[in-house]
Amino acid sequence: MRLRPGLIADYRDDVAVFRSNVARFWFAVLLVAVVVLGLGGTLPLIPGLVDFTLTGDLLLIAVTAVFASIGAIGLNIVTGFAGQVSLGHAFFLGVGAFTGAILGGTEVTRQVVDLSTGQFVERTMLVGYDLDLIIWLPAAGLAAAFMGLIVAPVAFRLRGLYLAFVTLGLVFIGEHVFREATVLTGGVGVGRPTGVPSLFGLRFDEAGEVFGIFLSKHQKLFFLGLALLVVLGFVAKNLARSRVGRALAAIRDRDIAAEMMGIPLARYKMIAFVVSSFYAGVAGALLYTAVGQLEPGSFNLLLSIEFIAMVLIGGVATVSGSIMGAVFITFLPRLVKWLAGFWMFGFISDSPTGGLVTLAQMELILFGGLIVVFLILEPLGLYGIWIRIRNYWKAWPFSY
Amino acid sequence: GDDDAETTTTTAATTTTVAGTTAATTTLPPEPEVAFDLGVTPSPCADAVNEGNGCIYLGVISDLTDGPFAPLGVPLTQAQEDFWAEVNAAGGIDGWDVVITAENTIDAHYDPTQTAEGAVTLADRVLGLAQSLGTPQTLGALPTLVEGDIVAAPATWFSGWAFTDVDAGLIMESGAPYCFEAMNGMEGLYDLRGGTPFTWALVAFPGDYGGDYGAGAKIAAAQLGLGDPVAEILQIPVSFGGSVAETVPALLAAQPDVIVMVTGPTEMAQVAGGLFQNGMTSFQILGAGPTWNVALKGNADLMPLLEAVYVGTSPWAGWDTDTEGHAAMRAAAENHGRTPSGSYVAGWTWQYPWLALLTEAIASGDLTRSNVAAIAATLEDIDYQGILPTRTYAGTPNDHVVRSTFLNQADADTSDGLNPLTDAFVGTIAADFDLAAPCFVG
Amino acid sequence: MTQFLQALVNGVSLASIYALIALGFVIIYKSMQVLNFAQPALLLLGGYWVLYFATVWGWAFPLAIVVGALFAAATGVIVERTTLRPMVGKPVFAVAILTIGLNTVISVIALDLMGVEIRQMGDPWGFGFVEFGGLNIAHRQIAAIVAVAVLVGLLLAFFKYSRLGLAMRATAFDQEVALTQGVSVSTVFALSWAIAAVLAMFGGVFLGSGVGFERSAAVTALKALPVVVVGGLDSIAGAIVGALLVAVSETLAATYQPEYAPFLGKGFSQLVPYVVMLLVLLFKPYGLFGTKEIERV
Amino acid sequence: MRARLLHEILPAAEADGSPLLEIEDVHLSFAGVKAIDGVTLTVRRGEVFAVIGPNGAGKTSIFNCISGVYHPGRGSIRFGGRDIIGMRPDRIADLGVARTFQNIELFPQLTVLDNLMLGRHQHLHYGTPAAMIRFGRAAREEARNREVVEGIIEFLDIQQHRKSFVAMLPYGIQKRVELGRALAMAPKLLLLDEPAAGMNLEETEDMARFITDIRHELGIGILLVDHDMHMVMDLADTVLAIDFGRPIAVGTPREIQANQDVIRAYLGQEHAVADPGGAA
Amino acid sequence: MLALKNVEVVYSDVILVLRGISLEVPDGKIVALLGANGAGKSTTLRAISGLLDVHRGDLTKGQITLDEHRIDHLPPAKVVKLGIGQALEGRRILAELTVEENLRLGAHTARKTLDVNLARVYELFPQLKERPRFTAGYLSGGQQQMLAIGRALMSSPRFLLLDEPSLGLAPLLVQQIRDIIVEINRQGTGVLLVEQNATMALSIAHHGYIMETGKIVMDKPARELLDDEDVREFYLGLSSEGSKSFAEVKHYRRKKRWLS
Ligand SMILES: Nc1ncnc2c1ncn2[C@@H]1O[C@H](COP(=O)(O)OP(=O)(O)OP(=O)(O)O)[C@@H](O)[C@H]1O
Ligand SMILES: Nc1ncnc2c1ncn2[C@@H]1O[C@H](COP(=O)(O)OP(=O)(O)OP(=O)(O)O)[C@@H](O)[C@H]1O
Ligand SMILES: [Mg+2]
Ligand SMILES: [Mg+2]
User: Which of B292, B434, C62, D80 is deepest in the core (most CB within 10 A)?
Assistant: First the structure.
């Protein structure tokens, strides 16, 4: 039987992630494009493409963006889908990051002076268990999810900004604990190396050949992140269009009415926090692997805010919006650097430190300014822009 | 051009060979034999002084806007820009100019993660780092540096840089490590106070800066018979959300004679101010090099009080000192409209090893990073134009580590706010200390 | 005992600074239901104006304060006009994030003006202190407490006797309704920003007096956040009570915790505001004096 | 005519007139205000029971007590024989109580379909892990329940609004969607709080028709509150009039319309003019 | 006189909601505006009071005048000052404020007459007078409606725009509100009354407009409307056979004449 494309024959198709071949086609195109971007200079077969691919620091940012996307999806689950504004995302990211670093990292010892003898003795500075990624990554997610489980009952009592503040308090408590537990975290201003991303012996933090293609460590991490993102993205999407997702949306929009539809508020708020924190934990554990270094102070209010900005600028309550937002915010400093280099900003001095405004200052101004301008011009976020573009092109090239 | 060369004779002196070939290199392309890979271009730098010279790019990772050492990071970085501008103005190094561009200057806010990220960002853009500020920060970036054979001059005096197993031979430190600076400081202060024992407190940043200096102070205190500190306070940088709110009451309660402050200038000023405001005046502060900043002398309320209590150590002499290097530095600062500061001296001084390294690498005909790194590990005869004694990186730490320190007093009448109390000296404790591992106290 | 009283005195003077900043948050929240994360930047810029007039131009300190307040108010109004006005009717969370962007921009400008070093405020108090029964009370602490008392009195009178107070609250709850009642929502917004900016300026002045003014003042400004939550986001009285509660707990913790509860870790006193906030919210979900959100079906 | 009747989509009850909801001497007050003051009533299967009374009389409060949002200070509420006082609202909903609200409480950012699917929440039997994977059970359950929802959409004649976000819909349609959402819960007892408020005549007629059909085809109990006397009197089997939370009269619509207390407190003398079908 | 001429309103730059509305409210008269849900009645009121901006709406054509002076595109605060008060659809009382605070807010532009007006409102609505300090959000629906109307009266408007004031009110109260509107009008205020309760509206209005999908389809003195066959069937529920029972409503209906 030949069906008219686009005709929905089954209710299942109606709620499918891709509702048409057009959508499927474009997703495939996007995925291939991203893979090509990541492969970079290693794909000599298509010489012309090399110029468009990511290398060097761009690739580093891309890796971060992919991992950040996972975290942003997590935040969108609790804040976008369930409407529980959380400023505590940095805390969950931190829990994941340090769990990953402890389980997947290496023990560090150091010679220190024993004052009584004047001799050097060895002391453990950092604990580490050298476990495989297959263990430490899920463990990082679970550790964060467990924290989410603990926080959820508190969140249940609070609304709006007051909830936001409790979660903000979490960030400060987290920072304090991270800062104090120096054998676990290295301490503030010092930090420790991240967990070693090694999956069954395949090292993602070292360059090497995979399936016959030589990949740099950042390329490897990029593809690892991409694979995880696709999986976790679909999981989130499934969740959103399930009874759970609808229940979360109901709680967000009208919690009292939701309860009278038979939705237990406490349980669902807990689910939202747990799932969201799991994503945060996974993202946190991976976020700094490309740089290789973690610092307790990184998991601060600013990081939480960056993630809120990702969700907001990307698009609230959408998975693809989360990704767009994460990519945008992660690339923004770089974009700003590039913008700042233009002649129009000629008043920026060539010297890194002198002049009316330095490059570093200009970067910050543009960063803040772009967020302001963006929110004024496009409150619906990148996802909103995307929908508008999509509606414009609708089904091309399958339009008929 | 010639006139300029005249006014910067001191710099030209270090690059006599370059000056001699200037005329020739301006018309000829750089030696084709010189091999290079990343961070080096045979084409001239943008806005090059010497159109015919090739270009060597150096990167900087510093604290420029809102970290605890931003007051130091800015003049430090400026000094390094100026250093190379002077070298280039004098014709460059044997056909090569050296630049630190705005693009290659990264503000890492004294954050190890951002420093590491900065290293990755710069990894395929520069030959090496003219500056990497902060000890834990530089340690965080080290894996990336090792991976890319990237040599760096640190803006830190960590004792670990003397060890090849710590720094992979890539870090070109200058001056005495914190550990020795603290030993000398304690010993010097002990002598200044007439050899009578005193009680002391330690206020230190977390990490190797605080740890290293603190270790030196403790080792010295043990040997001087001063005993343990009456208060030992880990001070989190104010810009990291730390506060002196606990430090001040703790010091008020402990009433130490001497407070060893291994912090940034802000924390030191706030602690001192807090103590004054609570009526505590009979104490002395022993500060490390980074604890002082020239801007403190502009505070008309605080400075008179500080003059009475503040003694600071430094690995080299201050702004107004009369050496060839200091004179060259002052001339450069004047050329570029910079104000005097201790940090400027430091930034300037740290570039001498790079000058020596580049000169030798160019002479060897190989500017690839691996070769540059190999030379750096055992570089010898580094001439500091009198700011420091000539030094080497070859041999064991005990062979080449520098142990001399200056002791200074806060003084509003000097250019950088510090007045030397001593010449360079090596105390007996520092002289005898066996540097078998990086200093750190358990 | 002296130690305890001293901690108490220090707590009260710290509270006066927190209260100034917290009131700025409250006023903007009252009119827009927005948390103004740009408050720290306004504090930096406001403090800078005073510092500039008092030290660079060498004006008398009171004159510097008055002109500084005018500049601060103007800054607040300009910011509101240019960036907040187009956001009328947009989701409050978007507006809150926008203020974060603003904070970045204004901070950079303020810091560029200030430079990275610690700067003298030009205040007349210096390190002077009075001794009082074994306690040392700094002149600047006394000044801060007095200034807060006066400013709070003025504000309370304003909300009580001017119809703008009610208009502000109405605007916060429902802008459309406020409009239909003839309230000029834009005047309300501009006014609240001007007031908040002036309060932030005073916060900056007292933070910067004595040791000097520098970037980390912005960090202190953020500590006013738990203060407003403890008091209730929209309560002026709450901001004062919250400030006292938070600041006194903080100074007491700073004095006693390292000795009596060292296991809580170093720098714990900095965490105390948030711990107090959590404890309060556990029992009072809308802070001590916050308006309860009305829910009815 | 409709292709399917409601009882082909939703489980129907035996309209045997047996008691479904029994409220006895319920009292509720808020900070001194007596919202409910000794209300007693029984709703039977297959019956439309109306509560009328002036604004602020406590009608909505009675609904809120039944749904578990308010907790009466005294009295008992039994549903299907079980005491439901103190139960959480979601548990009460699970027992088979569904309602609409005086001020529409739809989920504005969801589509009509999703709002109705939310009504099916308790009938979708799969957990969070299954939701994340979605293969198998979750997908099957979704499809099965979707069919029920489509049936209700058809019944309410809102097919063309299926995918619209409810916030964009006209008021009258929103009221209908809200009824649909309550229906989707397959309730045993339906609480309707002013279903015709703000509706024009045409829409009120539609609403009346839906209520009649639900009652006839499903045989469930319906508790109705509305100020449209014309509709209430036409649809209700029993009417309870309350004032200041106190019952003032109970009886058939005719009896109530003739009751002087009710006329004085609620209907007003003039109402007979505007409502010629009223009291004889 | 308040007049709209050929007013067109577009929401979000694309959704055309009013397609050339012309309407007049003479001083001291009650004008009823009837129409199905979504016809654009509330939009018409928003256009007058300057509230379109809030809803991303724009008046793209036509003009609104008050005594020959253009008032379209004026900010809402100005419109109120010129003497046009409005009670929004859905009550919109400020839930967190007290009853009296809500009323005081209504007097924002008329501070001098506050006491007089307050007394007048309390006289009109004794239920409000009983609890001036009650949190408005906990009032019952009908009490909230009284508060909303009362608040609009606090600015002593020349013209009062009422959007479905009878919504959710008990029959007795509908009668009271009706009387109150008449009373307000008698005191000299022109009223533009948007209503679903056509019986009530037409019983007191001097003139009536009927609106369908953004257009005025009929416009007659109220008395004539009451006699119109379509109006009787579709708005008043009075067909030629008299009123029918809701229990026996038909599933299909006669077409409205103006739609053909
Ligand atoms: N949560 C609450 N807090 C305080 N008072 C309340 C609350 N809920 C209701 N009330 C009061 O209880 C009384 C009854 O209110 P309810 O909403 O039940 O009236 P109603 O009969 O539904 O009126 P209407 O027909 O106007 O909707 C009112 O006086 C109202 O103010
Ligand atoms: N902000 C908006 N954006 C887009 N469309 C809108 C907006 N507000 C109203 N509409 C649409 O404009 C049309 C007219 O709406 P309006 O509220 O004026 O109708 P109404 O006649 O007052 O209806 P009701 O009787 O339901 O109040 C409706 O179809 C509505 O969906
Ligand atoms: Mg009700
Ligand atoms: Mg309307």
Answer: B292
